[in-house]
Q: What sequence folds into this?
């Protein structure tokens, strides 16, 4: 299986974009693993509870001590980084909000990179783009932070 890679660049509000993207995935019955730096992940965790007052996007933050039953039931998994293999039973869609690209992409059918406008995020996004291309993967680009 070849992993599909998409980049959404120039996103003004990376966490808001991710909330809308994850809500759409949840509504379609998809399961998603989200990686991000610790501060971005904490903000996303809070925003998934409150960004839409009429609806909740079920999610779990994978951390030591997380309930195995809750992890199995949750369609959205929040993980700080994947510097080793994906957790057992992990979803096959990865949304990355700025964490390093995982070393092993084989568990993922699809990777969605969300890159905010701003020099630091754009530079890190370019590095991940080059990494995926070096692995022989085709990358689809959506410029301007198209609405999720």
A:
């Amino acid at each position: 299986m070849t992993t599909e890679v998409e980049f959404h660049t120039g996103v003004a509000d990376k966490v808001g974009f991710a909330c809308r993207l994850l809500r759409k995935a949840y509504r379609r019955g998809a399961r998603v693993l989200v990686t991000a730096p610790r501060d971005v992940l904490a903000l996303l965790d809070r925003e998934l509870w409150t960004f839409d007052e009429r609806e909740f996007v079920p999610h779990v933050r994978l951390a030591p001590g997380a309930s195995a039953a809750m992890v199995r039931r949750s369609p959205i998994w929040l993980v700080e980084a994947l510097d080793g293999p994906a957790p057992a039973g992990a979803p096959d869609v990865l949304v990355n909000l700025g964490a390093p690209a995982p070393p092993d992409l084989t568990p993922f059918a699809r990777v969605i990179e969300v890159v905010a406008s701003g020099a630091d995020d754009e530079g890190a996004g370019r590095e991940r783009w080059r990494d995926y291309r070096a692995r022989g993967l085709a990358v689809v680009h959506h410029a301007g932070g198209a609405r999720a």
